[in-house]
Each structure stands twice: as structure tokens, then as C-alpha cells.
Specification:
single chain; Urease, subunit C, domain 1; TIM Barrel; 2 domains; eight-stranded parallel sheet; globular; binds N-(iminomethyl)-L-glutamic acid; binds fe (iii) ion
Length: 399
């Protein structure tokens, strides 16, 4: 089925113009792909479509991409939030066996269906704001069967909801209680699970948490070596709470992205630039943990490292389910421009997932689109607490 969308303001995020802007644009979808994009006045006379829709000046953009989430988990951490408000730090809580490990207990206790229903609600909140692709990490199972269950729930979300789900294995997220004092044995186990997860089609990429309350660079390297042997791309929770030089390590493996990066240094930036690694900034976690050290935005920008933005939705450090709010925070907290922030949830987010078929409005790209009740895309980063998404098109279908 072909649909011709006419008289749209198009932020194509493609080409040299700011926002890839087309003031009075038209876009043709054929099945699940974009077939033609340009100025309405330039529409070829020969071009026909089964249906024609006049958008009367509404804004159309690529569907949004949330390229870093931990959407599948049991329970919540509201009590931990209260403890932090009373003065306990995120690291102190983690070191005392709370934090990620308390979510592991709740996740293991939940059935597959309970995990699915809770995660589907979260995914729907993102979808309502024009999100068409979501990355979902494991990392709250931390045992072979529970990790596989969480990845399986993520895959089921992709089958049953109108959204593309990309899965990431994050077994190296925290040390589970069974392995207390034996982190290297746990890494051995996590490496041994990967081939099976991969063989079952559960994994698109491999991640680790390289930090004082996570795993060491040497342990991270072992996870990455296993991923590399399987031909799986890697990414890293790097330089979030301290500088472990994780970004340079990840870049050595051609990482798709390094994520958080508040403590990233100049050699890390150089390594990322040379490797073409995306800097994935997570303003929700920065805000919710009341961090004061900013990621080195100016240096990343100067080096030409592509910057992506995501929710990092998780129950501990970023319980946010609004990618639009992240646009606002990327601007207010990180001083990014609205256009940079928007590129961060479209074209650069696609790159952070290794996907070249989305994130821009151009012929051949997937017809994942969003229509907004705003006059200019900068308004998407400006207002918050209101959802201007009028319509969402997923693989050519209005949803
Ligand atoms: O991206 N840094 C590690 N992982 C998550 C937090 C997970 C949690 O606290 O449950 C993050 O911030
Ligand atoms: Fe994360």
C-alpha cells in the first residue's frame, strides 16, 4: 500500500540544511519503506499513490529511537529513592547489596507474563511519544535462565507491539549474590551463556557496566572478547561514576556506543572518534542521581563524535519514560542545541544501534514516522509534560 503525505513541514535529519528542513514537503511511502521525499512543488506528475493525506503544515519527522533502556524488570526502587533523599548515595546503596541487586531479586521472582505486562506498559508510554525503535538490555536476571527470560520478554515486545526492539545482553551489570567475592568466576559464567543466547536469536549486541560498582576493564575485556568471537557488536556503560578508561577499551573493539560518559577524558574522546563510536548521553540518570560533573559535550562536539540521547529507563538511576523530556534535559542540563538533541534521538541513535535503515527521512529508509502538532521541531525540546505526537507511522502503517 502506498501513501502520499502532502504539505508537511519535514525535519528529514538528512542532507546539509539545518534539520534537513523542507518547508512545504511531501513524502511517499511504499509498503514499509520511504519511496520519495522532497518539496511538494517538486512532486513528479507521474507519481501515484493509493491514498493521499494532506497534513496541512503539520511537522513530520523520523520516528524516534530510544537506544538505551533497561525496560524489562520486576519491582521498583521508590524506597531507595527515599533513602537517597535522606543522604545515602547510589554507590553506598549498591555496595550494601541494594541497588541493581534488589531489582534482580524482584525480577527473578516475577513470571514471564508479569515481566511482559510491566514492560509493555513502559514501552507504550514511549511509543505514545512517537518512538518506533527501542533498545532493551537484560541485566536484572544475572543467572543464565533469568537473563534468557528477560531477553525473551524483550523479543516478545518486538513481536507484539508496533515497535522495533533491539536486544542487548548485559549480564555484566552487577555481581549476583551467588558469586559474592568471585567476580571473575561470574564473568566466566556470563561469557559461557552468550553463545547459547546468541544461538537462540536473543542478542543483537553485548554491553557491560565498567565501574567501581560494576566490573573492571580486564573483566569487561573478557566479555568483549567473547562477543567478538560470536560476531556481536559491543557497547559499554563507561565513565559514569568514575574514569576506568572504559571508552578507550570499548573503542578498541569498535564499540557502537559508549554510554553515560560524565568522567570521559581526552584520550577516550580521541579513541571514540577514531573508532566511529557514538557518545550516548543519558540526561535522565545525570538528573536523577543529581550528578554535578557534566559529560565533556564541548570536546565531543569539537572532535565530531556523534552524540545520541536516550532515556536509560531503569528503576534505579533513571525511572523516566519520556524521550521528549530527555530532549529538554539534553538542552537545559547539557547545553546541547535542540537540533543536536533531536539528531541524538534519530540519526545518531540509529547509528548507536548499528542501524542504517532508519533515523532519517530519505528514499529507502524504513517508513517509521511521527507527525506532531507543533510548527517547528525545536518545540519538541522546549515544552515538557505535554505530548504533541498526533500520529505515528510504523513500517508504513498508521498505529
Ligand atoms: O544505566 N549504570 C548501570 N546501570 C544502570 C542503572 C541500573 C540500576 O540502577 O538499576 C544505568 O544507570
Ligand atoms: Fe543504562
Amino acid at each position: 500500500m502506498s501513501i502520499l503525505w502532502r504539505h508537511a513541514r519535514l525535519a528529514t535529519m538528512d542532507g546539509a540544511r539545518p534539520w534537513g528542513w523542507i518547508e512545504d514537503g511531501a513524502l511517499l511511502t511504499e509498503g514499509e519503506r520511504i519511496a520519495w521525499v522532497g518539496a511538494d512543488a517538486d512532486l513528479p506528475a507521474t507519481l501515484t499513490a493509493a491514498q493521499e493525506i494532506d497534513l496541512q503544515g503539520a511537522l513530520m519527522t523520523p520516528g524516534l529511537i530510544d537506544a538505551h533502556t533497561h525496560l524489562v524488570y520486576g519491582g521498583d526502587r521508590a524506597a531507595e529513592f527515599e533513602r537517597r533523599l535522606q543522604g545515602a548515595s547510589y554507590e553506598e546503596i549498591a555496595k550494601a547489596g541494594g541497588g541493581i541487586r534488589s531489582t534482580v531479586t524482584a525480577t527473578r521472582a516475577a513470571s514471564d507474563d508479569q515481566l511482559f505486562v510491566a514492560a509493555a506498559k513502559r514501552a507504550h508510554a514511549l511509543i505514545a511519544e512517537g518512538v518506533t525503535t527501542i533498545e532493551i538490555k537484560s541485566g536484572y536476571g544475572l543467572a543464565e535462565d533469568h537473563e534468557a527470560r528477560c531477553l525473551g520478554v524483550a523479543r516478545r515486545l518486538g513481536r507484539e507491539l508496533p515497535v522495533t526492539v533491539r536486544t542487548t545482553s548485559l549480564a555484566a551489570h552487577a555481581l549476583p549474590p551467588e558469586y559474592a567475592g568471585r567476580p571473575d568466576d561470574y564473568i566466566d559464567a556470563a561469557c559461557a551463556w552468550l553463545p547459547g543466547q546468541h544461538a537462540r536469536g536473543l542478542v543483537d549486541a553485548v554491553d557491560a557496566f565498567c565501574d567501581t560498582i560494576g566490573f573492571t576493564p580486564a573483566q569487561t575485556r573478557r566479555i568483549f572478547d567473547t562477543a567478538k568471537r560470536l560476531g556481536l557488536p559491543v557497547k559499554l556503560h563507561a565513565e559514569q561514576l568514575s574514569n576506568q578508561h572504559g571508552a578507550s577499551l570499548a573503542a578498541e573493539y569498535g564499540a557502537l556506543s559508549c554510554d553515560h560518559l560524565e568522567h570521559l577524558d581526552a584520550p577516550g574522546i580521541d579513541a571514540m572518534r577514531a573508532a566511529g563510536t557514538v557518545a550516548m548521553l543519558l540526561p535522565g540518570a545525570y538528573y536523577f542521581l543529581r550528578e554535578t560533573r557534566l559529560p565533556p559535550i564541548e570536546a565531543l562536539r569539537a572532535a565530531g563524535v556523534p552524540i545520541a540521547i536516550a532515556t536509560d529507563h531503569n528503576p534505579g538511576s533513571s525511572p523516566v519514560l519520556s524521550l521528549l523530556l530527555m530532549l529538554n534535559m539534553a538542552c537545559t542540563l547539557f547545553r546541547m542545541t535542540p537540533e543536536e538533541a533531536f539528531a541524538g534521538v534519530t540519526v545518531h541513535a540509529a547509528r548507536a544501534l548499528g542501524l542504517s535503515d532508519r533515523g532519517r527521512l530519505a528514499p529507502g529508509q524504513r517508513a517509521d514516522l511521527a507527525v506532531w502538532d507543533v510548527g517547528h521541531p525545536r518545540e519538541l525540546a522546549y515544552r515538557f509534560g505535554v505530548n504533541p505526537c498526533r500520529q505515528r507511522i510504523f513500517a508504513g502503517q498508521t498505529t
